[in-house]
Amino acid sequence: MGSFFYIFFLISLALTSLTNGDAHLIQKTCKTTKYYDFCVSTLKSDPTSVDSDTKGLVVILVGVATANATATSTFLSSESLNATKDTALKEVLKECSHKYAYASDALRASAQDLASEFFDYANMHVMAAADYPNACHNMFRRHPKLIYPKEVARREDVLKHLCDVILDIIDYLGVN
Ligand SMILES: *[C@@H]1O[C@H](CO)[C@@H](O)[C@H](O)[C@H]1NC(C)=O
Ligand SMILES: *[C@@H]1O[C@H](CO)[C@@H](O)[C@H](O)[C@H]1NC(C)=O
């Protein structure tokens, strides 16, 4: 009789952790990062995050960052910006578009690294991805007459926040 209740207890414990445990995993994982609220809201915007383990969560964030970098690359080569007659600006926008495409490639590579649990390589690729926006920003700095567009600054900020959060979680995965 005693062991029947013990087994029942174990089963309900297992069910509880299946249904409730995962909701806390997002919070627990995001607590290891510099931007808790940003991390939680980004993960909650993906419905598959509730069924994910910590590695799954960081892979979701890498996917969001990849999409962000690609969208910015596209934005930088878009017609509206490209309509400028300023040849220096045209050239810088084109280079910036390439940098964000490289950032996207680096993030894709980091997703592969994570799948293989090569956390050092994953870290290295995300650091590279976070650095490409600097290369873009620096090109604007080198042309004193060019103004760094607000929208590009905003997108740079989002991508860097995403990369920071990802790097913190990879660190956490690497030691746990
Ligand atoms: C970029 O990331 C932000 C923050 O998570 C998100 O709100 C936005 O939808 C993302 N954009 C793309 C194109 O993925
Ligand atoms: C701008 O548009 C022209 C013509 O549509 C295209 O050839 C060029 O590659 C575009 N530049 C950028 C930066 O996308």
Automatic annotation (TrEMBL):
Keywords, sorted A to Z: Disulfide bond, Glycoprotein, Monooxygenase, Oxidoreductase, Signal
Pectinesterase inhibitor domain residues: 21-169
SMART domains per the UniProt record, alphabetical: PMEI
GO molecular function annotation: enzyme inhibitor activity; monooxygenase activity
Leader sequence residues: 1-21
One Pfam family named in its UniProt record: PMEI
Family of the protein in this entry: Belongs to the PMEI family.
PANTHER family: OS01G0111000 PROTEIN (PTHR35357:SF8), OS02G0537100 PROTEIN (PTHR35357)
This protein's name: Squalene monooxygenase
